Automatic annotation (TrEMBL):
The chain crosses the membrane at residues 6-23. InterPro entries: YvrJ. This is YvrJ protein family protein. It holds the Pfam family YvrJ. It comes from Halanaerobium salsuginis. It comes from the Bacteria. Keywords: Membrane, Transmembrane, Transmembrane helix.
Length: 67
């Protein structure tokens, strides 16, 4: 608790709260990302798209996101 007070005095209360919330919410965001990926795969398979085509497209999208 004392560390939080030191951080708040050094960086300001809003910044400390923002960092705390980001750390707390990150696992939820990762879980939601996995859920969206799973649902996308299910819809793609039901639409008749082959798994290899889906994987290729996913790889391309991830590479574009890095740029």
């Amino acid at each position: 608790m004392e560390e939080l007070l030191k951080l708040a005095s050094s960086y300001g209360f809003p910044m400390v709260v923002a960092i705390y919330l980001l750390v707390r919410i990150e696992p939820l965001i990762r879980s939601l990302t996995r859920s969206v990926d799973t649902l996308t795969m299910m819809i793609a398979l039901q639409s008749g798209i082959k798994v290899k085509d889906y994987d290729d497209l996913r790889t391309v999208v991830k590479e574009k996101a890095k740029d």
